[in-house]
Fold:
Amino acid sequence: MNILPKIFIPEHADDGVVREEHVDRDEAHDEPRRPDEDHQRHQGQPDAHAQGGFEKPDAERAHRDGGDVECGQFHGIFPDDCEERSINPTLKKRPNSQHSTYRRGERGMGIAFEPAYIRLMRSGELAERAELAWRHMAECDLCARYCRLNRLETAKGAVCRTGERALVSSCGAHFGEEAPLTGRRGSGTIFFSWCNLRCVFCQNWEISQKGAGQAVEPDEIAAMMLNLQREGCHNINFVTPSHVVAQILAAVLIAARAGLCLPLVYNTGGYDSPEALALLDGVIDIYMPDMKYGDSEKARKYSKVRDYAGVSRAAVREMHRQVGDLTLSKNGVAQRGLLVRHLVLPGDISGTEAVLAFIANEISPDTWLNLMDQYRPCHRAAEYPPLDRPLASREFEEAMKLAERYGLGRLDRKGVMRWSIL
Structure:
């Protein structure tokens, strides 16, 4: 029995690839996208994001045919990583054609990178995962809080305050993420409202703890993904996704059937359940957990969760098992693998050495690591010294030395550059 709302399953799109109609190309769009560009996709027509709306995928155009994907929907705009894995560069400016075509997984000579979820879509397993995840919400175990509430009926009593519909605070190309995610054209971020953590120092507390945002259906999330792809982003980056795994899977199913071909990034606070990660196995290409604490007692005090260290370590082990160390395209853009974030907190509340020792000894010394130094007192931090002060430069310097001591050499260059000018 299919318990998903009908909007989750586009007609004529049970598990196949997509053929899009041809659209004339604007050769000017072959130029790299920059953060300050006003990148309109249709001449004389406002961008959907500028209007505060999204172009929804047309279910009637998504159908199984086993053939090529006509990429008219992209209007000639291809992210660098998508070019490398899927598109023969000679097709970008063919003299006898005004549209580009690519076959998923092929690029001229040899087999290229393909997002994991496309294979699951073809086999039909992605649809099964989406429905199974929806069933999990009836007695929710989709984050490590295990509230067991029926979120299909109510959000009352759930720490995440989220019921059947996810809330989104914003979406768009983001240029402040890790270097392999940002590339030249940005990471296509979708910021979900609410959170399964209650960090007293949260810098985005209006979103994470007050729920600022708009309730959306899965087809609207799918439209956001397709619009971000159309804008040229290198990936789709789900920010604070742990409590909306079911809604994300439903949206990915719709978007994949409508032509989505970008890697998916799971940008999490690290308090993820094995049940959720099992549903995401083979769907997510890039996991990016924030390992916030090396000590569960500190996590209990400052983020109001139990056994954070144990839960996050188990989650990171499973994430690495699924995707391995981070792999990059020839242009340095992330394709698949694990990135770990760690925000260094004043007074070593974050337990940095314990976190770095775990990564080096139990995950991989080749883990891509972003040691973050941008802590500033926010929300209720003034009530919890020493969180009431900024991070001292000597504290971050010590964290960098620890990374070197444990042989963690793949440090995100943005963090390294910030430290070099302290």
About this structure: The chain is about 30% helix and 10% strand. The radius of gyration is 21 Å.
